[in-house]
Records
---
Amino acid sequence: MHDPSAWRIALPHTAAAVPMARALVRTALAEIERPADSDTAELLTAELVANAVEHTDSGVPIELVVELLANGCQVEVHDGDPQPPGDLTARPDGHHPDPWQEHGRGLLLIRALSSACGHRRTARGKAVWFTLPARV
């Protein structure tokens, strides 16, 4: 069994960052014996990276960190904006985004499909993260 390790890559501040991030997650998860669900990890990573590209200053780099854990993985997307993302916690009023809207469902997907998620401030902005358990 592999020891937990982390994969880290700087991403361009363009739409090209999304497929690059998906490929890194897929490659990283292929390295461990009991990976998390790769399709879910790729989907949620794509949402975080797309949000970082869309909602942060284009002059600031985006970084993807995939940490391989003994019981799954944690994915973080670092960007230069210290402002927290939209609400990553379940809303008490049960309000969900309009399914016909073009935007607003990414964080809902992350909340619904990850085992945990959140954000934290960093020295250069923030990191938004989620964890997924290993497949049984």
---
Amino acid sequence: MFGSGRTLSSFKVGDEVTVRAPSDRPVYHDGSHGTVVTIGTKRVHVRMDKAAFEDHDGEVANFLPDDLEPGHVGTPRNWDRMNEAVNAMKLATGNDLVAVAVDAGVITAEQGEQMKAVWARHLQR
């Protein structure tokens, strides 16, 4: 994997970062949101503000600069990511079902759009 070209000087104390597939750290940090607390000679020290797994919140871990992305990007919690994936699958299944019903003439296209909107709102709860 090619690095991003980030160096220690790319970061300063207080920067918000997202951990991306750490090259030599435990994988359970992937996706975690954190804040830079110190900068060492080779690594950036990050406090996990919202770790991928809640029990790592507040933990300080150190990462190579290429393992970090500036800002809080994406959904950090693994559980939330799983829920998003399941809901995307449910939404796609509902849309497919509506498309079949419209194609078969069981419902109108307008009714199909209404059903898709209701289903999407239901999944957001």
---
Amino acid sequence: MATRFDPFQDMDRLVGEMFGSARAAATMPMDFFRSGDHYVLHVDLPGVDPGTIDLNVEDRTLTLRAERSPVEHDVQWYLRERATGSYVRQITVGRGMALDKIDATYTDGVLTLSIPVSEDAKPRKIEVQHGSQPATITQTAEHTA
């Protein structure tokens, strides 16, 4: 029986175990879900100055930028797990979202984006007519998650 050795995978695992908390602190943890006729994105950005939050949409790419400045200068650090500096995250989203109608709020360190489902992505019921009458399409309140 042959086994495969990947030194890079083992190294990545070791680094992850040693520096996992520091790596997690340098990211923007987020949750993304659909609720009714909106998609909701929660992004954890504690300590970020709201004036530095920049949100852009180009084609199907959502770009989020934010900055956290260091709280103390000219001090002797003993422990520093809270990352400072610029954060950038890009998310490529699929069709079906009305990206021109995003509502964004920043409260208690959490950026919340509410993105409506686009009209052409909402489920519709097609009624079949008998004979020479044309078929009609009607909007339904039902949706699939």
